[in-house]
Amino acid sequence: MKLWTYIGKKVMITFKDGEELNGIVTHYDDAVDNETGEDSIIFKVGKASYDIDESEIKYIEILD
Fold this sequence. Notes:
By secondary structure, the protein is mainly β. The protein has strands at residues 10-15, 20-29, 40-45, 48-53, 57-62. The radius of gyration is 11 Å and the shape is globular.
């Protein structure tokens, strides 16, 4: 999914369970650095930050 390409961008993430969130991707962790063994992004929504594994993501859309 090339998650590193979204760093610094405002995006809408659609999760596999159908939930959607808008926010900014602030960081990327590759599988080697991540505890779960998966690529992941740090996603900021307001003041909250979420570590989202690639397996949770159905689709990412870059917003203007």
